[in-house]
Design goal:
Layout (H helix, E strand, L loop, with lengths): L5 H10 L10 H17 L3 E6 L2 E8 L6 E5 L12 E2 L6 H6 L3 E4 L5 H4 L9 H4 L3 E14 L2 E13 L5 E13 L5 E8 L2 E7 L5 E7 L4 E7 L4 E7 L4 E3 L3 E3 L2 E8 L5 E8 L4 E6 L6 E7 L2 E6 L9 E4 L5 E2 L2
Antiparallel strand pairs: 1-2, 2-3, 4-5, 5-6, 6-7, 7-8, 8-9, 10-11, 11-12, 12-13, 14-16, 15-16, 16-17, 17-18, 18-22, 19-20, 20-21
């Protein structure tokens, strides 16, 4: 399984329309596919609106009133900027725009047009040293546990004094809508990138992978109050796996940067509202993780028929994080 560095994780979160940069093992993919088939029965109230092979929006039907609302992706993207020059050199740029993915050439833009898109933490003297190249806005969207989750991101790219073309600022707009079309949760913030988003089975908590330019963390929000409930900083030198949610727990896995094996499992129990963790032997190269019947299974990523390493963990194996 491919493991991304923190810098690459952040870049991918902000520049491609996927929720994670990790390849998934066939066994994990099958487990998730089974889960999606089960969820689809309950998710008929939220359906995609298609333009050819592209999803351009969703219809949301309130089961109680039978009222139908429509959510169009481009109409709700706060980062689309008609005043900027569209970069038409991007492959399939017209098709990508259908799903809210736009690239702009800002190499000749007025600095006053660019400044509102930058993080407030960037000092003016640093901005003066940048040679801006492009701005990109992307949209990730999916149906998850009777919710529509839409994550808009904006990244500003520039050449620095060392000649490297890098992301120098980022912004995010995360919306979570229920089947009645009501926004039940939202985050709008400059300087923040959001990766995975999961909602607990009891619909009490929502968790995200959050990344800014100084740190990354897992954040847990109370859906009733919409307030940040818990957060856990990801240690320096560690990379994260996709978040999993099942049986009212959120499961987060870490590996050491540049190595495939999981070395730590972090767990948030949505019943008691506590974090727990368990150290794992990284030398076993366990890089596949899935939950089944209250047990966390870890195995090697292997396509052969040879015997592979595996570990099964129960919730009682974890230690509370103070």
């Amino acid at each position: 399984m491919m493991v991304c560095s923190k810098k690459l994780v952040f870049l991918i979160l902000l520049t491609v329309t996927i929720w994670s940069c990790h390849n998934k093992d066939k066994r994990e993919t099958l487990t998730q596919a089974d889960s999606l088939r089960v969820d689809s029965v309950a998710q008929d109230s939220i359906e995609a609106i298609k333009d050819g092979s592209y999803t351009i929006g969703y219809t949301l039907r309130d089961k109680d009133t039978n009222k139908v609302d429509t959510f169009l992706i481009n109409n709700n993207n706060p980062f689309i900027n008609k005043a900027l020059l569209v970069d038409k050199g991007q492959y399939n740029w017209q098709d990508l725009q259908k799903e809210g993915n736009f690239m702009y050439d800002i190499s000749r833009a007025n600095p006053n047009e660019i400044r509102p898109m930058l993080s407030s933490s960037i000092p003016d003297d640093s901005i003066a040293t940048y040679r801006f190249s492009r701005v990109a806005t992307y949209c990730n969207h999916r149906i998850f546990k009777n919710y529509l989750i839409v994550n808009y991101s904006l990244s500003v790219h520039a050449f620095k004094q060392n000649g490297a073309n890098e992301i120098v600022s980022a912004s995010t707009k995360l919306l979570v809508l229920n089947e009645a079309g009501k926004v039940v949760f939202d985050i709008s913030k400059r300087g923040l990138g959001i990766g995975d988003v999961c909602v607990s089975d009891n619909k009490t908590y929502l968790t995200i992978y959050a990344r800014d330019f100084s740190s990354s963390s897992y954040q847990v929000y109370d859906l009733a109050t919409k307030e940040l409930f818990k957060f856990h900083t990801i240690p320096h030198g560690m990379s994260s796996f996709p978040i999993q949610s099942k049986d009212n727990v959120f499961v987060y896995a870490y590996s050491l940067e540049g190595k495939p094996g999981i070395v730590r499992i972090l767990l948030f129990n949505t019943i008691d509202g506590q974090f727990y963790q368990k150290e794992v032997d990284g030398n076993k190269n366990l890089s596949v993780i899935f939950l089944k019947d209250g047990v966390i299974h870890l195995t090697e990523d292997s396509e052969g028929d040879d015997e592979i390493n595996s570990i099964e963990l129960k919730l009682s194996d974890f230690v509370k994080v103070n």
